[in-house]
Amino acid sequence: QAQLVESGGGLVQAGGSLRLSCAASGRSFSIAAMGWYRQAPGKQRELVARITRAGSTNYADSVKGRFTISRDNAKNTVYLQMNSLKPEDTAVYYCHADVTVVVPVPYWGQGTQVTVSS
Description:
Largest sheet: 7 strands, mixed
Number of strands: 11
Number of helices: 0
Radius of gyration: 14 Å
Order of helices and strands: EEEEEEEEEEE
Helix content: under 10%
């Protein structure tokens, strides 16, 4: 079993920055891709950014150039640096990881609220 624990959400003014972190804990597992999704009220959950174990990344068009995803494989931790935040970035942000104990299984964090005021 693995757990994903997120931190770093909060309230920020438009144009500001936040850094989200997500650490995976547990025993005897490996992690392939990790990523961040978000869900705004009344909307579907959407991919924000994703990073493979080797470091390849992809981003939603709406965040390209403003957000940067990174990871520390030794710490089983993924980060999301969010700059130039906009009110439309307001959402609950969820960490995701493809965790292999026996077979690959998707894991989700509990979510962290990001609110950007105008």
